[in-house]
Amino acid sequence: MKDASSFRFRLANRTLMQRLFEAPAVGKMSPVSKLLAHTLLLIWSLFVLFPIYWVIITSFKDAAAVNQGPFYLPFIDFQPTLDAWRIQFTEDPNCNFGAIARQLGLLVYNSFVFVVSPVVSLAPMEPQICKIYLAFTNSVVISIFSTGLCVVVGSMAAYALARIQYAPRFGNILIFVLLLVGVIFATIYAGAPWWAATAVALAFFFLLLRALRGVFKTSLKNGDILFWIISQRILPPIVVVIPIYVMFQAVGLLDTHLALILLYAVANMPIVVWLMHDFFANLPIELEESAQLDGATRPRIFWEIVMPLTRPGLAATTLLILVLSWNEYLFAVFLATVKVQTMPIMIAAKNTGEKGIFWWEMCALIVVMIIPVILMSILLTRFISKGVLSGAVKG
Amino acid sequence: MKEFGNQASVRFENIEKSFGDVKVLRDFDLVVEPGEFIVLLGASGSGKTTALRILSGLETPSGGQVYIGDENVTDILPKYRNISMVFQSYALYPHKTVAENIGFPLKVRGMGKEDMDAAIHDAASQVQIENLLDRYPRALSGGQRQRVALARAIIRSPSVFLMDEPLSNLDAKLRGHMRAQLKHMQKSMGITTIYVTHDQIEAMTLAQRVAILEKGVLQQLATPAEIYNDPANLFVAQFIGSPPMNVVHGSLDGSRFLTNGVHVQTAVSGHAEKAVMGIRPEDCRITSPSEGTLSGKIFTNELIGDHALVTVAWGEDQIAVKAPKEFAGEMGDDIGVIIPTEHLFVFDETSGQRIR
Amino acid sequence: MASLDDMRQPGFPPAGTTRRERFAEWVDRHSGTFFIAPCVTLILIFAIFPTIYSIFFAVSRVRFTPDGLKFRYVGFRNFSKQFFGSSEVHFLGRTDPVSLFGYAVFAIVTVAVVVWLWRSRKITTWVGMLGRTISAAMAIFLSWILCASLLSGNSIGTLYTTLFYVFVGCALQFAIGTGLAFLCSQPISGKNFFRVIFFIPLMITPLGVGYAMRMVADVTKGPIEPILGFMGLQDWIWSADAWSARFMMVVSDSWQWIPFIFICMLAAFENVSRDHVEAAQVDGASSPQIFKEITWPQILPVAVTVLLIRMIEAFKIVDLPNIMTGGGPGSATESMTLHSMYIWRANDLGSSAAIAYLLLILTVVVCASFFNYVVLGQIKKARA
User: Which of A290, A296, A308 sits opposite B91 (nearest CB)?
Assistant: First the structure.
C-alpha cells in the first residue's frame, strides 16, 4: 500500500490545474470560479453605482463644470460647489426661514386635518413660494397617507379572503355591472346628473337583489375574488386616468391631496392583497381559534393577534408601497396640476428650461428624492429579502 | 355572558358532521355529568377532535344539537359558550408575554387592570409559573408553555374545559408528571373537562369515564376499569391494553370455541359461524405442553423488565403471554398455555359485538 | 356582497350590555362585510368604474366646453383610425410594401398557430378553447404586423415599440438578474454587500433614472464621451437613431428593474432544498449538473411568476421615454402609454382612450396567455 500522503486526491497533493479549477471542499468554490464571480459582481456594482455617483457629483458642479465636458473627480477634475443646492433652497426671496417653518407646520397641520376630516382641502399653501418644500411636503403627505390607507385596507381584505368564506352570486355581479354601464350612459348621453343616476341605480340594485334572491345559483369563491383583486394590477393607469380626471373634476377634488392618496392606494392595493394574503394564510389558525374561544371579536383578533404576527411581512410590504407611491409619476402628472405637485412632477418640470436643462439643479433634486428611500431601504433590507420574498415567491 | 357555573353538564344529541362526502361523526350521543372528567379516545380520523370542536363552536354540526347545561348552544358563537380550550400546539400568542397571554381572555372582556393582575397571579400560581410572567413564549420550555396554556384556560373559570391532545408535544417523562398535575387540578377545581387523546394510558389514568370513538361512531362509554375488563366489542377490546389482546379466529358452537383443531371452553354460549376469541396476555399462563389449554412452540421470548413477554406460535395464530421474568424458554421450545375460561371474551366476527 | 360567516347568529344577547358592546357585537357579526368592503369599494370606484367609463370616451368625440365635457358618439372610428386611418403609421408602423420574406414568415407563423389551436381542441373545455382562440388571433395579428413592418424593412409603430420594451427588456432583465442572483447565492465573500448595492436602483424614481441615464449617456458632455472618442465614434448620437434610442431605453429600464428580478430569484435560489443539493454533491454531480437537474427545476415556477409580474409592469412603461427622448426621434421610442398621453395633451380624448384600451387588451391577452400556458403549467408541474 502506498503512503497515504502521496494519495493524488489529497488537498496537498493536487496538480496546479486541480488547485485552480476544483473546489477544495463541498460548499466552497474553486479559485478560478471565485475570481470570475467576483469580477462579474464588481463590474455590475460599477454599472449600478456609476449613474448614482454621477448624479451626486453633478449636483456639486457649476455650469462650467457640466458644460465643458466630462469631469469625474471632485477637487481633482473640478472644484465642487454648493451652488445647485443653495439655489434649491434660497432661489426664492420669499423663501426665508419663516416660510420654511410655515411649510413644516403645514405638513403637521395637513396630516392632522386629513385624519380628522379627509374632505377638507389640504392645501392652503401658496404654490408660488418655496417650491421644493412644497413638493417635498406634498410627496411626504401623499405617500405616507396613501401607503397607510393601502396597507390597512388591503391587509383587511387579504385577511378576510384568507379566513372568511365568501360566495357572491355571479348574477348579482352581472346586474351591478349592467347598472354601472346604465349610470354612465345616462350621465353622458341623456344628461342626467351623476349623483341622481347613481342613486337610482343603487336603489334598483338592492331591489333586484331582493327580487332575484335565489335565482342565480353560480357563485364565486374566495380564490376568484382574490384573483380579481390581484388582476387589477394589469390595468394600465393610462386607461383609467382620463375618466378619473373627469370624475375628480365633477366632485371638485382635482388637484387635492385626497385625490392622489386615494388613487395611489387603489393602484397599489393588488400588491398588498397579494403579498399579505400569503402571510395570513400561512399563520397557524389555532391562535385565532383560541382567541375566538377567549371571546375576542373578529376585528380584535385582526388587530391584536394577526397583524402583530405578520410584522416582518407588513414592514416589507409597507416599504414597497411607500417607494412606489413616492416615485409615482403618471397619475400625478394628470391630476396634480398646481397645488399638490409632488417631487417627480417638480423634477420633470425642470426639463422645460429655455436655456436647456440646469443639470446641477436637477441632480440636487434627484438626490433629495433618493435619500429618504435609500435610508429606509437600508434600514429594512433585512425585512425585504426575508419578509416579502418568503411569502411572495412561492409560485 | 351567560353563566353556567363551573360545573356544567354537556350533552351531544344525534350529532352528525360531514366534510363533503366524508362522514366524520355519525349519530353521536354523549352525556357528560357536571364536574366529570371525560376522555374521548380514538385513533386519528376517528372524529374525536371534531366532536370537541363542535362543542367549542369552531365547527357547526351538520345535524343534531349540543347542550351546555340546559342551554342549546348549537347555533351559538364560541365566545358565548364560556368554554376554554387547550390546543395541541398550545396556541400561545408569540408577541405577548406570559402574563399578557394568560390575561387575554379577561382583557377582551374589558376587565380592569388591577383585577386582571390579581387574576393572572392567581392562575399562574395554580400552575406554578409565577416566576415566568414577564417572559415571551419563545423563551419557555415545552412544559412551561403547556402550563401557560393551562393558566390561560383556567383564568376565567369556564363551565367546560376542553383539551385537544395537550400532552402530545411533551417528552415521555414530562408527560407523566403533567398528567398527574392535570388530574389533581381538575379534581380540586371540579370543572367539567373533556379531553381528547389517542394515547390509551392518558385515557385510562385521567378519565372518570372514557368514550372510545372509531370512524365517527361511539363504540363504548364507560369507566376505565369497565372498558378494560368488559369491552363492548372487538374494536374496544383490541384498542385498549398493552400489549394488545390476543385474538384467535374460529367458530363458536355452544360454549365451545373451535380453532386450530382445539376446543376451548368458554363462559358464554351461543352459535356463530365466524367468531373471535380474545384473551389478554396477562390472563394467560405458561405451563408444560401437556397441561395447557393449547400447546405450541415459542416464537420469541422478550424480557420486558418486571415480566417476560412470550409469544407462542399456535397453528396460524400467535398468542402473547406474560410470563414471570425468570422464564427462560428458548425459541422453538414446545410449550403449553393455560387460558382461564373466566377471562375469555368471545366476539361475533361479522358484527364485532361481544357474545355474552 | 353576501358573506357566509362560519356561525349563525348568537343565541343569547347578553342582558346588561352597554351600547358600545352591542356595537362591537354588531361589527363582529358583519365582520365579513366590513373587512372586504373598503377594498372592493375603492377598486370599484377607482378601477372598475373608470375602466367602463373609458369605453364611452373611446367611442365618442369628446370636446371641452364651458359647461363640461360634450360627448358625441362616433362608433369605432377612434379605433379604426389607429388601424386603417390617419394614425396607422404612428400606431402600427409602416406596413406597406410587404416583402416576400415577410409573407413567408407570416405564413409559417400562421400555420403553426392554427395547428396548435387545432391540436388543443381535444385537451380543453369550450371555455379554454375560447381563450386559446383569442390568444391565437392575437398571435396572428401581432405576427402580421411584425412581418409587414419590421421584417419587410419598414419602420415600426408604438405598438411594437411597447412590445420591444416588454419582450426584449424582460428577457434581458431576466437573464442578467437571474445570473447575478445565482452568483450571489454561491458561497463567496461579500455577498451581503453586493445584495445591498444591487437593490438600490429599484428605489430610485424612474424619472431620476431617466435623467441620470440621459446624463451618463450624453455623447458630448457625459462620462462616456472619452470612450466614444477613443473608439472613433465622436459623431455618433444614440438618440438620433431609432433603434439605438430604443435600445438605450431598454438598458435604462433594465438598470432599474434587474434588482427586482435579482431579489426574487435570490430568494428562490436560497429556498432550494439543501438536502437535494447535498445529496447530489455526495453522488458526485458537477456544479452545472446540479444547477440543471436540481436547482433549475425547483426555481422554475418562481421564475415564470416573477417574469409575469415584470411583464405586467413593463407594459406600463412611460417615464423613461418621456424623459430621455420625449418619444423621439420622431415617435420611435414612444410606448403606447406615452402615445396615449401625447394625444391627450393634443385634446383628442377619444383617440387617447382608444389607444389606452388597445393597450389594456394587448396587456390582458399577452399576460393571460403567458399565465395560462406557462405559469399555470409550471405551478401544476411543481405541485404534481
Answer: A290
